[in-house]
Amino acid sequence: MHQLTAIHHVAIICSDYDVSKRFYTETLGLTILGEVYRAERRSYKLDLALNGQYVIELFSFPDPPPRPSRPEALGLRHLAFGVADLNAAVAHLNEQGVVTEPIRVDEHTGRRFTFFADPDDLPLEFYEQ
Protein backbone atom coordinates (compact mmCIF):
# COMPACT_ATOMS: atom_id res chain seq x y z
CA MET A 1 0.00 0.00 0.00
CA HIS A 2 1.27 3.45 -0.88
CA GLN A 3 1.73 6.17 1.72
CA LEU A 4 0.79 9.80 1.17
CA THR A 5 3.74 12.08 1.86
CA ALA A 6 2.30 15.59 1.54
CA ILE A 7 -0.29 17.77 -0.11
CA HIS A 8 1.44 18.64 -3.36
CA HIS A 9 -0.58 21.67 -4.48
CA VAL A 10 -4.01 23.28 -4.71
CA ALA A 11 -5.37 24.25 -8.14
CA ILE A 12 -7.42 27.43 -8.49
CA ILE A 13 -9.24 28.64 -11.60
CA CYS A 14 -9.66 32.41 -11.66
CA SER A 15 -11.89 34.72 -13.67
CA ASP A 16 -9.35 37.55 -14.16
CA TYR A 17 -5.82 36.21 -14.45
CA ASP A 18 -4.00 39.52 -13.97
CA VAL A 19 -6.03 40.47 -10.88
CA SER A 20 -5.59 37.04 -9.26
CA LYS A 21 -1.90 36.88 -10.15
CA ARG A 22 -1.36 40.24 -8.39
CA PHE A 23 -3.44 39.12 -5.37
CA TYR A 24 -1.56 35.84 -4.83
CA THR A 25 1.91 37.31 -5.51
CA GLU A 26 1.75 40.92 -4.29
CA THR A 27 -0.95 40.77 -1.58
CA LEU A 28 -0.25 37.28 -0.19
CA GLY A 29 3.44 37.22 -1.13
CA LEU A 30 3.67 33.89 -2.94
CA THR A 31 6.55 33.59 -5.40
CA ILE A 32 6.35 32.55 -9.03
CA LEU A 33 8.04 29.27 -9.92
CA GLY A 34 6.84 29.21 -13.52
CA GLU A 35 4.29 30.72 -15.85
CA VAL A 36 3.03 29.23 -19.11
CA TYR A 37 0.46 30.36 -21.65
CA ARG A 38 -1.17 27.39 -23.37
CA ALA A 39 -2.47 28.91 -26.63
CA GLU A 40 -4.47 25.83 -27.63
CA ARG A 41 -6.50 26.14 -24.41
CA ARG A 42 -6.38 29.96 -24.19
CA SER A 43 -5.19 29.36 -20.65
CA TYR A 44 -2.46 30.54 -18.32
CA LYS A 45 -0.91 28.23 -15.73
CA LEU A 46 1.00 29.93 -12.93
CA ASP A 47 2.95 27.84 -10.42
CA LEU A 48 3.26 29.56 -7.04
CA ALA A 49 5.41 28.77 -4.02
CA LEU A 50 5.32 29.58 -0.32
CA ASN A 51 8.74 29.59 1.35
CA GLY A 52 10.17 27.79 -1.69
CA GLN A 53 7.56 25.03 -1.63
CA TYR A 54 5.22 24.64 -4.60
CA VAL A 55 1.67 25.13 -3.25
CA ILE A 56 -0.75 26.66 -5.78
CA GLU A 57 -1.48 26.25 -9.48
CA LEU A 58 -3.37 29.30 -10.71
CA PHE A 59 -5.25 28.74 -13.96
CA SER A 60 -7.20 30.96 -16.31
CA PHE A 61 -9.75 29.46 -18.69
CA PRO A 62 -12.21 31.23 -20.95
CA ASP A 63 -15.67 31.45 -19.35
CA PRO A 64 -15.31 29.01 -16.43
CA PRO A 65 -18.64 28.09 -14.80
CA PRO A 66 -19.30 29.53 -11.32
CA ARG A 67 -19.02 27.30 -8.27
CA PRO A 68 -20.51 27.79 -4.81
CA SER A 69 -17.66 28.75 -2.54
CA ARG A 70 -18.91 29.94 0.80
CA PRO A 71 -17.31 28.09 3.69
CA GLU A 72 -20.41 25.99 4.40
CA ALA A 73 -21.02 24.90 0.77
CA LEU A 74 -20.56 21.24 -0.11
CA GLY A 75 -17.03 20.41 -1.20
CA LEU A 76 -13.70 22.03 -0.43
CA ARG A 77 -14.44 24.48 2.37
CA HIS A 78 -11.47 26.86 2.26
CA LEU A 79 -7.71 27.11 1.88
CA ALA A 80 -5.86 28.07 5.07
CA PHE A 81 -2.43 29.68 5.32
CA GLY A 82 -0.43 29.56 8.54
CA VAL A 83 0.87 32.90 9.81
CA ALA A 84 3.16 33.76 12.69
CA ASP A 85 1.48 37.06 13.60
CA LEU A 86 -2.24 37.23 12.80
CA ASN A 87 -2.56 40.92 13.69
CA ALA A 88 0.23 41.87 11.27
CA ALA A 89 -1.18 39.61 8.53
CA VAL A 90 -4.66 41.11 8.90
CA ALA A 91 -3.25 44.65 8.91
CA HIS A 92 -1.36 43.92 5.68
CA LEU A 93 -4.50 42.56 3.99
CA ASN A 94 -6.58 45.52 5.14
CA GLU A 95 -3.92 47.95 3.85
CA GLN A 96 -4.26 46.22 0.46
CA GLY A 97 -8.04 46.73 0.52
CA VAL A 98 -8.86 43.12 1.42
CA VAL A 99 -11.75 42.82 3.88
CA THR A 100 -11.26 40.31 6.69
CA GLU A 101 -13.83 38.85 9.06
CA PRO A 102 -13.44 39.53 12.79
CA ILE A 103 -10.69 37.44 14.38
CA ARG A 104 -12.00 34.32 16.07
CA VAL A 105 -10.44 31.79 18.44
CA ASP A 106 -10.45 28.06 17.69
CA GLU A 107 -12.24 26.58 20.71
CA HIS A 108 -10.20 23.37 20.52
CA THR A 109 -6.68 24.74 20.02
CA GLY A 110 -6.95 28.26 21.40
CA ARG A 111 -5.38 29.57 18.15
CA ARG A 112 -6.66 32.70 16.46
CA PHE A 113 -7.86 32.81 12.83
CA THR A 114 -9.78 34.88 10.33
CA PHE A 115 -11.37 34.44 6.92
CA PHE A 116 -11.15 36.61 3.81
CA ALA A 117 -11.71 36.12 0.08
CA ASP A 118 -9.58 36.14 -3.04
CA PRO A 119 -10.64 38.22 -6.09
CA ASP A 120 -13.11 35.48 -7.14
CA ASP A 121 -14.63 35.28 -3.66
CA LEU A 122 -12.94 31.97 -2.86
CA PRO A 123 -12.74 31.57 0.93
CA LEU A 124 -9.25 31.82 2.39
CA GLU A 125 -8.11 31.70 6.00
CA PHE A 126 -5.14 32.92 8.01
CA TYR A 127 -4.50 30.64 11.01
CA GLU A 128 -2.01 31.82 13.63
CA GLN A 129 0.62 29.21 14.38
Notable characteristics:
129 residues; 2,3-Dihydroxybiphenyl 1,2-Dioxygenase, domain 1; 2 domains; four-stranded mixed sheet
Per-chain topology:
Elements: E1 10-14, H1 17-27, E2 31-38, E3 43-50, E4 53-60, E5 79-83, H2 86-95, E6 104-105, E7 112-117, E8 123-128
Parallel strand pairs: 1-4, 5-8
Antiparallel strand pairs: 2-3, 3-4, 6-7, 7-8
Overall description:
12% of the residues are buried. The protein starts with 9 loop residues before the first strand and ends with a strand. The chain folds into 2 domains: 1-63, Roll (2,3-Dihydroxybiphenyl 1,2-Dioxygenase, domain 1), CATH 3.10.180.10; 77-129, 2,3-Dihydroxybiphenyl 1,2-Dioxygenase, domain 1 (Roll), CATH 3.10.180. By secondary structure, the chain is of the alpha/beta class. The protein has 2 helices and 8 strands. The strands form 2 sheets. Strands 1-4-3-2 form a 4-stranded mixed beta sheet, covered by helices on one side.
Quick description:
It holds the Pfam family Glyoxalase. 16% of the residues lie in helices and 37% in strands.
Strand content: 35-45%
Q: Tell me the structural class.
A: alpha/beta
CA(first)-CA(last) distance: 33 Å
Q: What is the CATH architecture assignment of the largest domain?
A: Roll
How many structural domains are formed by the residues? 2
**Low-confidence parts:** none
Rg from alpha-carbon coordinates? 16 Å
Largest sheet: 4 strands, mixed
| CATH homology group of the largest domain | 2,3-Dihydroxybiphenyl 1,2-Dioxygenase, domain 1
- The amount of helix comes to 10-25%
Q: Specify the overall morphology.
A: globular
